[in-house]
Amino acid sequence: MTKRVIASLTTISLFITACGTSESNMATDSVSTVIKDSTEVTSSVDEIAMAGSGSGTDIEIDMDLASSNGITDDYDAEDINSNALANTEESVDNSFSYTLCFAGDINFDDTWSNMVYYHNNGDNIYNCIDEDFINEMNAADIMWINNEFTYSTGGAPMAGKAYTFRANPQNVYILNQLGVDIVGLANNHVFDYGEEAFLDTLATLEADGIPYVGAGRNIEEAMSPVYMKLGDLTIAYVAASRAEKNKMTPEATQTSPGILRCYDTEKFVAEIKEASENADFVIALPHWGTEYSTKLETAQTSTAREYIDAGADVIIGAHSHCLQGMEYYNGSLIAYSLGNYWFNEKTLDTMLLEVEISGTGSTIESVEVQMIPGTQSGWVTTAADTPEEKERIYSYMESISIDVEVDDNGYIHPAS
After folding, report:
1. Nearest to 2 by CA among 316, 178, 229
2. C-alpha to C-alpha distance for 372 and 133, rounded to whole angstroms
């Protein structure tokens, strides 16, 4: 799922020559161990010995040249290859640093104002979201976003609902342009056009190879963690919703599709515990809070602690359509809501939130969180591009948060 090389290249150089080849044709060859796109490729001793030779050709070591490089004739080819491999293993750096990126609400409904703007501006997402933001999204090792609509050309608007959002399934390609690796579906709009359109949404994302979390064809799927591999690490995503005062979006059952709800936290807590047992790092993604309000509900602050106690390493919320504050609990960050990312015409502060995890092997030794600030305004989302604008948003976030500081580079810390 990752989009970039996630470990450095280690090179072994051996002086070798094939049978019947003169010293003048001597060459240096390289055998590499590469970790790319989360898949490890290794070279055995035999493969190293064959480097630079044709298939099935024996390898000889030119001992005159070897001697000039400090190798005596007491060594045979196997000794030299074994020593070279041992030295390489000693020098392999198995440290890691990965970036998990998160954005708030996005809407691809072709009749909604932001998509009307998109179509009137060349169907070009770069005319709607700042290139700096898009580059940041694509650079992340895993990029998550809140999919606040349904993908379908069928179904009918849910009766009695004020706002219903349905996107043409072809619009899923915009997620590819944005570098999105996983989407959240535990929200109050994914069932806006009923069961047919909901199932179309799942099928559309599956056909495009984009995992989704927090919804499914039955409750088992809806409450299943999504596990993603980064090198030796397993990252788990879990999601649930308690956004609706009037509960209209159905929860999945054993025999019917829907989302996972967390008004009663029992199922979500069980899912978090399961994820914690099977992953190295767990991200909980609740859909909650009051729209366009920075005031936190008691249910948000109390259940956030339940989720961390159950094993969540970070909590990142959505639904409020505006930024909400942050706080730390037992060393874990709670970002109560990322608000709108690209959703409507309102002028609102926004951000990308990046969780940077680093360590060695499969051991996480450091977790840092950075906000990349910006603004949604007039159907366009732009990254803050001056120190003054960044500082304004940092200070605003501190003012609505609980004992949290944001430094000059956007890194978030408990207040000292």
Report:
1. 229
2. 8
Domain 97-414 has CATH 3.60.21.10: yes
Q: Rounded to whole angstroms, how far apart are CA atoms 54 and 347?
A: 64
Show the 3-state SS of the chain: CCCCECCCCEEEEEEEEECCCCHHHCEEEEEEEEEECCEEECCCHHHHHCCCCCCCCCEECCHHHHHHCCCCCCCCHHHHHHHHHHHHHHHCCCEEEEEEEEEEEECCCCCCHHHHHHHHCCCCHHHCECHHHHHHHHHCCEEEEEECCEECCCCCCCCCCCCCCEECHHHHHHHHHCCCCEEECCCCCCCCCHHHHHHHHHHHHHHCCCCEECEECCHHHHCCCEEEEECCEEEEEEEEECCCCCCCCCECCCCCCEECECCCCHHHHHHHHHHHHHCCEEEEEEECCCCCCCCCCHHHHHHHHHHHHHCCCEEECECCCCECCEEEECCEEEECCECEEECCCCCEEEEEEEEEEEEECCEEEEEEEEEEEEEEECCEEEECCCHHHHHHHHHHHHHHCCCEEECCCCEEEECC
Token pair in block for residue 199: 């199932």
Q: Left, alpha or beta for 231 (phi > 0: left; psi -120 to 50: alpha)?
A: left
Q: Rounded to an integer, what distance in angstroms lies between the CA atom of residue 339 and that of residue 242?
A: 16
- 236 strand-pairing partners: 227, 282
Report yes or no: 252 and 260 within 8 Å, Cβ to Cβ.
yes
Check whether 194 has a pLDDT greater than 80. yes
pTM of the shown model: 0.79
Tell me which residue has tokens 């995890």. Answer: 357
| pLDDT at residue 35 tops 70 | no
**Tens digit of pLDDT for each residue in 11-29?**
323 233 333 443 434 333 3
Q: What are phi and psi of 323, to 5 degrees?
A: -65, 140
Secondary structure of 373-401 as H, E, C letters: EEEEECCEEEECCCHHHHHHHHHHHHHHC
- Asked if the model's pLDDT at residue 399 lies above 60, the reply is yes
Question: How far is CA 8 from its chain centroid?
Answer: 20
**Strands 150-151 and 258-259, bridge-based pairing:** unpaired
